[in-house]
Design a protein that fits this description.
It is built from 7 helices and 11 strands. The chain is about 25% helix and about 25% strand. One of its GO terms (molecular function) is damaged DNA binding.
Length: about 270
């Protein structure tokens, strides 16, 4: 967490809060979160910049300023909050962007896993982080023929391939389980054993589930909320993720949970043969 739907919701709500604001101070409490340059250089480059747009690529937030693009990855628990400068500072606040209107964009991260990388404006495609990303699941560039070719060439488990960001950007653990369930495919099945009809179902399920999750603001499983403090709505539609032991919504068989390459993985042993 968060995955593409959650990051997209953060992007949309963050854009409503910060576009047009000018940075006049940056405070960094955890320097290791800044990658690609020393923290003090990052601070110097951000001061005087005005936020012009907030975009997304895969699970990355892309914050465009006057001269640069900030690549922000929230990892497990990262959050952005807009505050008045006089508001109490949460102990998990690790990066603060102070604006000329005396508001602050604060980045909170309990686990301190999040990262920020500043590049020249529009140069994010040259970074290793973005270069390796595959097509967006809701974009025209996500083509079934390419998707099928990559699946047929891989002997890895279907779920493992879906989590490969070079195949399709933005799918994580929750949505991989849901996609496999809707497509009636076992997540541990070797991808190169899939029939054409099964590949088609996986492809269509990927588009359908990701679109629905984006529309509902993502899934709040533990601590996820968007930039305005609101939870997602898709968790109420999850069919198998987090449902270990509960009856399958289709056939009533208890949902099974296993470990697959270190990831908790949920499926119906009857519907997904």
């Amino acid at each position: 967490m968060p995955e593409l739907p959650e990051v997209e919701n953060v992007r949309a709500t963050l854009a409503e809060l910060v576009i047009g604001k000018e940075i006049d101070q940056v405070i960094i409490g955890v320097p290791k979160m800044i990658v690609g340059m020393p923290a003090q250089q990052f601070v110097g480059n951000m001061i005087g910049q005005k936020i012009e747009a907030v975009r997304r690529r895969g699970k990355f937030l892309l914050i465009d300023t006057t001269d640069g693009t900030l690549l922000s990855h929230l990892r497990m628990e990262g959050k952005y909050r807009l505050h008045n400068a006089t508001d109490p500072v949460d102990k998990h606040t690790h990066v603060t962007f102070h604006f000329t209107d005396d508001t602050e964009l604060r980045y909170l991260d309990v686990r301190k896993f999040g990262t920020m990388e500043l590049v020249l404006k529009g140069q994010e495609e040259l970074t290793k982080s973005i270069q390796k990303l595959g097509p967006e699941p809701l974009s025209p560039s996500f083509e079934k023929s390419t998707f099928a070719t990559k699946l047929k060439k891989s002997g890895r488990a279907v779920k493992t391939v879906l989590l490969d960001q070079s195949l399709v950007a933005g799918i994580g653990n929750i949505y991989a389980d849901e996609i496999c369930f809707q497509a009636k495919v076992l997540p541990e099945r070797p991808a190169n054993t899939l029939r054409s009809a099964e590949i088609t179902r996986l492809y269509e399920s990927t588009k359908t589930i990701m679109a629905e999750a984006v529309a509902l603001g993502g899934s709040t499983i533990r601590t996820y909320v968007n930039s305005q403090g609101k939870i997602g709505g898709y968790q109420d539609k999850l069919q198998v993720y987090g449902e270990k032991g509960n009856p399958c919504p289709v056939c009533g068989t208890p949902i099974v949970k296993i470990k697959l390459n270190g990831r908790g993985t949920h499926f119906c042993p009857k519907c997904q043969k």
